[in-house]
Each structure stands twice: as C-alpha cells, then as structure tokens.
Amino acid sequence: MSAKQVRQLIPAIAVIVVAAYIAAQMLADVASIKIGLIAGLAVDMGTFIYPITFTLRDVVHKVLGRHNARVLIISAGVINLFMAAYLMWAAAFPSDPGWGLGAEFSAVLAPVWRIVLASIVAEVASELMDTEIYHLVVTRITHRYQWLRVLISNSFSVPVDNLIFSIGAFAGVLPWESVWGIFIVNLLVKYAVTLVSLPLIYIVPDKRVDE
C-alpha cells in the first residue's frame, strides 16, 4: 500500500471506528436495562457488546492520539446522558390513543436512572484509565506488540468498569451475593469479548503515538 493510500485510508477508518464506538456505547446502555441469565447467574445484556468499546478506544488512540481519545470518551458520556434524558421525555410524552404501545414503550425504554448513571460513570472512569495505561505501555514499556498493549490496558480498565457499575447500579437494591454474582459473570463475559476483539487493533497501520 502506498503512502498516499495509507493517508486516505486512515481518516476513513477513524470515522468508522468513532461511529462504532459511540454506537456500541449506546447499545450497551440501552441493553443494560435487561438482566439475563447465564447458567442461572445474572448478567446485564449490555455486557456482550460493551467490552468492544475498550478495543475500539485503543484503535482511536492509535489513529488519532491520546487527546482525541479523551475527547471521544467524554463526548460518548454526554451523548449517552442525552439519550437517557430524551428517552425519558419520549416515554412521558402523551401517546396517541390509536397507538397501543405507550405503556410498553415506557416500561422498556424509560431509563432506570441509577443504572444509567452508574453505567456512564463506569464508562468514563474506566475508559480514561484505559487511555492512560495504553499510552504508558506504548511510550514507556513496548511499542512492538500491539495485542499486548490492548490486553494490558483492558486488563486494568475492564475490572474497574465492572466494579463501579455493579456496585453503583445494584448495591442496596439486590442482595450482596447477587451483586457479586453479577460482577463475576459480567467480568468473565467482558474479558472473553475483549480477547475476541483484540485483532481490531490491527485494522490500521501502526505508528508511534506520543500525544
């Protein structure tokens, strides 16, 4: 691939990855309202897509640098907060009598604010941590193994995200055994998804990122 082709490819990939990051964040926050079961253990359904955002964040960091990765994280948090507020407003808006799904819409999509806020705080805090750890690995430890930088940064940030979310969303509402059950199952699922998503870091050519 020529240098010109690389320069044309990177902006296009950056747009796609940023869009995918925000979309995955929003889908995870909406899906987190449902608590599913794996082998009889509780898991919020946002868990199956959310961990991809850590690797997508790493790709953004690789392509656009640390500063823009931080901007993306904060922007995604604001967007998710706006989404929750808009869904709450839409749920409270009077329904047309001929449309019989007003109550169902409110029951499914009206935000559970404790879960929403716990999710957003967890996302922002853990993804900012991921940014700093990824940057440290690339600039101070090794620039050679791309998969390793993703694995190390995610290995720190995913448990932090999971801890903040599990306690913030469910402590005092569910028994502590259930809260820790959610923490453990979510952590295992998130880490499995992280491992599957590792190859995403190779979708763009590597370069040294100092800022």
Helicity range of the residues?
over 70%
Structural class estimated from helices and strands: mainly alpha
Beta strand %: under 5%
Number of strands: 2
Describe the main β-sheet briefly. Answer: 2 strands, antiparallel
In angstroms, what is the radius of gyration?
19 Å
Q: Which spans have pLDDT < 50 for at least 5 consecutive residues?
A: none
Instruction: Give the terminus-to-terminus CA distance.
Output: 26 Å
Indicate the overall shape: globular
**Number of alpha- plus pi-helical segments:** 7
Main-sheet strand order equals 1-2
Please provide a brief summary of the model.
The protein has one domain. It has seven helices and two strands; from the N terminus they run αββαααααα.
Comma- or semicolon-separated keywords:
4% strand, 7 helices, mainly alpha, two-stranded antiparallel sheet, 2 strands, 73% helix, globular, 211 residues
SSE layout:
Layout: H1 3-31, E1 35-38, E2 41-44, H2 52-64, H3 66-92, H4 102-109, H5 113-141, H6 146-170, H7 176-197
Antiparallel strand pairs: 1-2
How would you characterize the overall build of this protein?
The chain is mainly alpha-helical. It has one domain (3-203). It is 73% helix and 4% strand. It contains seven helices and two strands. The chain has helices spanning 3-31, 52-64, 66-92, 102-109, 113-141, 146-170, 176-197; strands spanning 35-38, 41-44. A two-stranded antiparallel ribbon has the order 1-2. Helix 1 runs antiparallel to helix 2, helix 1 (3-31) runs parallel beside helix 3 and helix 3 packs antiparallel against helix 4. The longest helix has 29 residues, at 3-31. It is globular. The two termini are 26 Å apart. The model has no long low-confidence stretch (mean pLDDT 86).
